[in-house]
Amino acid sequence: MSNKILVTGGLGFIGSHVVVELQNEGFEVVIIDNLSNSSIDVLKGITAITKKQPIFEKLDLRDKTAVIDFFKKDQDIIGVIHFAASKAVGESVNLPLLYYENNLNTLIYILQELQNKETSNFIFSSSCTVYGQADSLPITESAPIKAAESPYGNTKQIGEEIIRDTCKVSENLKAIALRYFNPIGSHESAKIGELSIGTPQNLVPFITQTGIGKREQLSVFGDDYPTKDGTCIRDYIHVVDLAKAHVAALKRLIDGDNTDNYEVFNIGTGKGSSVLEVIKTFEEVSNQKLNYKIVDRRAGDVIAAYADTTKANKVLGWKAKLSLKDALISAWKWEKGLN
């Protein structure tokens, strides 16, 4: 039986780490990426870590004909892990149609092809943004889905709905949506990591770039939130732990352990850390004093979000093992390697 897995957006931050874990587990991996927000050099990093080069195809999934041709050619793919999407919240507010086209059309074209297969397994890269400011913490999978704060967040909600509705009418399709909290860090080898093209979208690249002198100052958006130090709280998960959750979810689908053909799991550590705690932890592990400044709150930022991971721990047999310190040490090693 084939063990070939397609990873779309497989040269991106999370995708590349998932490819490494899949290859380490003996899967054959095909990567599709249009290189719009990634670099072909990541392929070298993956190969250096695993001693095996994944198959790579440069392809834009918005091209429906190209997607049809790909699945005609590669009929032995047994699973798809779908990362290929635009993910900058601020940019999505300014360019909503780009986000709806890129994040929804590509999903639809892939699902249309998977519907035609005898059996298919699909993992969707979703996000805790679907919960908005949750009514209670930690956040369980049964927490209400709130109105999205951005077109990006909305594409994750609509994406989940599209998959759920497709699974209802497709017995041959099994899918899992993984709702990530805040992925940070890099592979311990520092051969792959979070490659920020242009202005970073996340806190940790801002921290490491400020630490190394690429940026003069780090902005902390608000210190008047109702939290212990006034800054926002998030659940920061090491990207390697997150990658391993994808392997656990994929094995569940392949082994047919799921009774329902559509499932949702939170993927986080179950622990919240404030922005100032992350900054202080970074200063501790790097011996760098960070130049940061408190500025006005950012629109759309929730006060606090961290996961209840009980379901993923029990059902997937997966648990986050790496700490905030581990993640920041690896992120700093990656940043220094870039320079």
Per CATH, the architecture of the domain at 4-184 and 236-268 is: 3-Layer(aba) Sandwich
Q: Average pLDDT, to the nearest integer?
A: 96
The residue fraction in helices comes out at 40-55%
Structural class: alpha/beta
Shape: globular
Estimated radius of gyration: 19 Å
Annotation, overall tally of beta strands:
14
The order of strands across the largest sheet is: 3-2-1-4-5-6-11
Q: Helical stretch count?
A: 11
* Percent of residues in β-strands: 15-25%
The string of secondary-structure elements, in order, is: EHEHEHEHHEHEEHEEEHEEHEEHH
CATH-level-4 superfamily name of the domain at 4-184 and 236-268: NAD(P)-binding Rossmann-like Domain
CATH secondary-structure class of the domain at 4-184 and 236-268:
Alpha Beta
C-alpha end-to-end distance: 44 Å
CATH topology call of the domain at 4-184 and 236-268:
Rossmann fold
Low-pLDDT segments? none
Biggest sheet: strands, sense, closure? 7 strands, parallel
Characteristics of this structure?
Rossmann fold, NAD(P)-bd_dom_sf, 19% strand, alpha/beta, EC 5.1.3.2, 339 residues, UDP-glucose 4-epimerase activity, UDP_G4E, seven-stranded parallel sheet, NAD, three-stranded mixed sheet
Overall description:
This protein is α/β, with parallel strands linked by helices. It has a domain at 4-184 and 236-268: Rossmann fold, CATH 3.40.50. It has eleven helices and 14 strands. The strands form four sheets. A seven-stranded parallel beta sheet has the order 3-2-1-4-5-6-11, sandwiched between helices. Helix 1 runs parallel beside helix 2 and helix 7 packs across helix 11 (324-338). The longest helix is centred in the first third of the chain and has 20 residues, at 96-115. The N and C termini lie far apart (44 Å). The model has no long low-confidence stretch (mean pLDDT 96).
